């Protein structure tokens, strides 16, 4: 007997419940929050670079960093240090705002 596929609404509810349960796990929550922060920074860096009409190669040259590293950062695949953030912002003549809530 073939099972009837779960409706999209039920799948969403199942995922929401599963996610809430996982967020109670400290290790999972910390990893999720770190990944989220990395993704947000990646999106904002990419947007700021494009707004300044810079290519990854152009930014890499300004900050003396390999273009591949800029690419990994923009994909959220690489952790960045505060020093790296400072170099990137200085290279783009940009500022950062941090809000701790």
Q: What would you call the quaternary organization? A: single chain
Under CATH, the homologous superfamily reads lambda repressor-like DNA-binding domains
Helix-strand pattern: HHHHH
Note poorly predicted spans: none
In percent terms, what proportion of residues is strand? Answer: under 5%
Radius of gyration, whole Å: 19 Å
Q: Distance between termini?
A: 52 Å
Secondary-structure class: mainly alpha
Largest beta-sheet details? none
- Could you tell me the CATH topology label: 434 Repressor (Amino-terminal Domain)
Helical percentage: 55-70%
Number of helices: 5
- Based on DSSP secondary structure assignment, what is the total number of beta strands? 0
**What is the total number of structural domains?**
1
- Nearest-integer average pLDDT: 92
Overall geometric form:
elongated
CATH 2nd-level architecture: Orthogonal Bundle
Explain how this protein is built.
The protein has 101 residues and is mainly α. It has a single domain (15-92), classed as 434 Repressor (Amino-terminal Domain), CATH 1.10.260. Helices cover 68% and strands 0% of the residues. The chain has helices at 8-23, 26-51, 56-63, 67-74, 82-92.
